[in-house]
Amino acid sequence: MLLCSFHRYSFHSILHSHMLSNQLIALRSSDAVDVMFANPLTGVVEILFQTGHAYTYKNVSRRAIVNLILNPNMSLGFWINENLVRSQRVEYKSQGRLNPELSALSCYQAA
Q1: Which of 27, 37, 43, 54 could make an S-S bridge to 22, C-beta 3.0–4.6 Å?
Q2: Dihedral sign of CA atoms 103, 94, 60, 20 in order
Q3: What backbone phi and psi angles, to 5 degrees, belong to 83?
């Protein structure tokens, strides 16, 4: 019984202390994504693609966001296709295109 209480308390603590704000998704090798933030509390995901285009996605599955945060080896392309592109519930809005001069500072650009 003590183990179950500890487990529940630990998960509860993690959820409230680390997941109440936007989470920078660990940088992973991606041909399309430059940087990605996800908020499991609000169900909002913000992505800056390497092309410089930025999008905000709303009504994203909170369970899918938590799964992405907790699994750093998950492919971003797979996750985006399954949980954003193919999802009937997700709404998205273009935030425009990053200035090309700023694009040169991309996470994946060679120095």
Answers
A1: 37
A2: positive
A3: -105, -10
- The answer to whether the beta carbons of residues 61 and 43 sit under 8 Å apart is yes
DSSP letter at 84? Answer: I
Q: Cα–Cα distance between 61 and 89 in angstroms, integer?
A: 9
Residue 98 is given by DSSP the state -
pTM to 2 decimal places: 0.72
Q: Give CA–CA dist 25/34, Å, rounded.
A: 11
Q: How far apart are the first and last CA of the chain?
A: 54
Domain layout of the chain by residue ranges: 20-103
Residue 9 corresponds to which tokens in the numbers above?
Answer: 């308390």
Q: What is the pLDDT of residues 26-66, one digit of tens each?
A: 677 788 998 899 999 999 999 999 888 999 999 999 999 99
Nearest to 43 by CA among 76, 84, 4, 94: 84
**CA–CA separation, 110 and 107 (whole Å):** 9
